[in-house]
């Protein structure tokens, strides 16, 4: 039997994502022994660079996660020896043919498998795929392409992108990344739900009052204003990262753990949702602010952002799933940049205990006595359940306590970066954590009409100070559904 080899080509090799995430993830996989025996890594971009220069650039961002690990330096050297560079235009068949030639030299005598990671702006996805596919078509191994969002700006442009990609690729060659799906606690969601009897039976409108998906960053667009301004927070975070988590949270039990079975359930729940209504969304934009003697910039101070930009850097939304399990339960989302804290959490607020025997000990504020399950995706991965508990001692006084699974204490080992898991899955052809095209269509169908309306009506975002908790409008929106936002812990 012929051995196989894999060539991993990072298109857009000198970009930020490649340097910060992709090369380090590839090295981490190599370091841990997850890459196949025969592999090469190629960087492709427009800038002129030698192999050596690429290696120097890449080496600056490689880490062994925990420094001073054994053999780290040696492993880095071995890894870097397998890294090469080819400079070319993104729309040049000729340049890709040259790359193809170099790839073939490394593939001699082996079954050639090829993975392309498109770490480039979406307007050149199709060019690259077209150029790369000409030369790849003769190979006997597989060819897969990883693409990163934005997948269009709305239903139409997304469908058009899919149509163009499919001129050159089959659906099963396209790996659409949503890196939130590669996060440890997001992957754990299904384990929590479907392998614990104490959760799944409670997972419905009968016991759950509302669910919150919260994303918060304590920094602004800082240099990415150019990209961000034409997308905004709803497209950047909600339509993909938060909605994906919601789908995993709310889907029915899949037939199996097979990628198609899981994605079928996600599509089903997305298609059961009501498209977002303007009334159920509020948007915000951060403004400059002085804090502790330091001046924090406004979003519109970013040199790449127009002064009169109406782009949202914050949004809160209420979503509804019109199916038997979730009828009437508000699913709230909140996402913002330049807020007071960095973190991402899922918060599940349970209903009040009927006829609560202990209600007097809590006073009138029943909210303070309801159970809440918190899944902190980052930083500091934790799952905890707020329960009522007797304060030890004489008398009967109750207290809210946490049943707490703190990852750092329970699993004292490094959690792999999302990109490691996703790259490994793409190499192994595991599609479970990638977005299928019908899933993408369903996600856009929910957000497209709203985004169009926001833009057409030129709805002005509510300004909030950099480093604050965001616009007060988010509280009114939640209050409309009798919900109080949980505070990032
Ligand atoms: C990206 C967004 O998808 O996710 C960025 O484009 C955001 O705006 C980033 O900062 C957040 O990812 P993480 O993994 O740092 O939470």
Automatic annotation (TrEMBL):
Residues 191-485 form the Glucose-6-phosphate dehydrogenase C-terminal domain. The keyword Oxidoreductase applies. Residues 10-188 form the Glucose-6-phosphate dehydrogenase NAD-binding domain. Pfam families: G6PD_C, G6PD_N. It is an enzyme of class 1 (oxidoreductase). Transmembrane segments: none annotated. Keywords: Carbohydrate metabolism, Glucose metabolism, NADP, Oxidoreductase. The keyword Hydrolase does not apply. Pathway: Carbohydrate degradation; pentose phosphate pathway; D-ribulose 5-phosphate from D-glucose 6-phosphate (oxidative stage): step 1/3. PROSITE patterns: G6P_DEHYDROGENASE. It catalyses: D-glucose 6-phosphate + NADP(+) = 6-phospho-D-glucono-1,5-lactone + NADPH + H(+). It comes from the Eukaryota. GO terms for molecular function: glucose-6-phosphate dehydrogenase activity; NADP binding. Its EC number is 1.1.1.49. One of its GO terms (biological process) is glucose metabolic process. Belongs to the glucose-6-phosphate dehydrogenase family. Catalyzes the rate-limiting step of the oxidative pentose-phosphate pathway, which represents a route for the dissimilation of carbohydrates besides glycolysis. This is Glucose-6-phosphate 1-dehydrogenase. It comes from Amborella trichopoda.
């Amino acid at each position: 039997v012929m051995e196989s080899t894999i060539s991993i080509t990072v298109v857009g090799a000198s970009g930020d994502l490649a340097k910060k995430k992709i090369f380090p993830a590839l090295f981490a996989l190599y370091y841990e022994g997850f890459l196949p025996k025969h592999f090469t890594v190629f960087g492709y971009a427009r800038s002129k660079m030698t192999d050596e220069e690429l290696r120097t650039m890449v080496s600056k961002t490689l880490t062994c996660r925990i420094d001073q690990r054994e053999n780290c330096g040696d492993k880095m050297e071995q890894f870097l020896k397998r890294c090469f560079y080819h400079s070319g235009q993104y729309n040049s068949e000729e340049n890709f043919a040259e790359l193809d030639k170099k790839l073939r030299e490394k593939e001699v005598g082996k079954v050639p498998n090829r993975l392309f990671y498109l770490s480039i702006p979406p307007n050149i996805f199709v060019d690259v795929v077209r150029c790369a596919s000409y030369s790849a078509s003769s190979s006997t191994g597989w060819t897969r392409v990883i693409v990163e969002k934005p997948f269009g700006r709305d239903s139409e442009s997304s469908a058009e992108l899919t149509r163009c990609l499919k001129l050159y690729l089959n659906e099963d060659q396209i790996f659409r990344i949503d890196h939130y799906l590669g996060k440890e606690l997001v992957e754990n969601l299904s384990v929590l739900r479907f392998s614990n009897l104490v959760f799944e039976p409670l997972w419905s409108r009968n016991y759950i009052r509302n669910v919150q998906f919260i994303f918060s960053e304590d920094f602004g667009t800082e240099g990415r204003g150019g990209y961000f301004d034409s997308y905004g927070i709803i497209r950047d975070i909600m339509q993909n990262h938060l909605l994906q988590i919601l789908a995993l949270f709310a889907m029915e039990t899949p037939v199996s753990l097979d990628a198609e079975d899981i994605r079928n359930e996600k599509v089903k729940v997305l298609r059961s949702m009501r498209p977002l209504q303007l009334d159920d969304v509020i948007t915000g934009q951060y403004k400059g602010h002085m804090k502790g003697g330091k001046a924090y910039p406004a979003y519109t101070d970013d040199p790449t952002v127009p002064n009169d930009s109406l782009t949202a850097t914050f949004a809160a939304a209420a979503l509804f799933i019109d199916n038997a399990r979730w009828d009437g339960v508000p699913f709230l989302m909140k996402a913002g940049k330049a807020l007071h804290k960095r973190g991402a959490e899922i918060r599940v607020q349970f209903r009040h205990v009927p006829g609560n025997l202990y209600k007097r000990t809590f006073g009138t504020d029943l909210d303070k006595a309801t159970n809440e399950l918190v899944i902190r995706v980052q930083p500091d991965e934790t799952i905890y359940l707020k329960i009522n508990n007797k304060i030890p001692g004489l008398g009967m006084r109750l207290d809210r306590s946490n049943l707490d699974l703190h990852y750092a204490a329970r699993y004292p080992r490094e959690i792999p970066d999302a990109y490691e898991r996703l790259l490994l899955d793409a190499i192994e052809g595991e599609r479970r954590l990638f977005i299928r095209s019908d899933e993408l269509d369903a996600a856009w169908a929910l957000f497209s009409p709203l985004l169009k309306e926001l833009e057409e009506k030129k709805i002005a975002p509510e300004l909030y100070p950099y480093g604050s908790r965001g616009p007060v409008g988010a509280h009114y929106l939640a209050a409309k559904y009798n919900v109080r936002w949980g505070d990032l812990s």
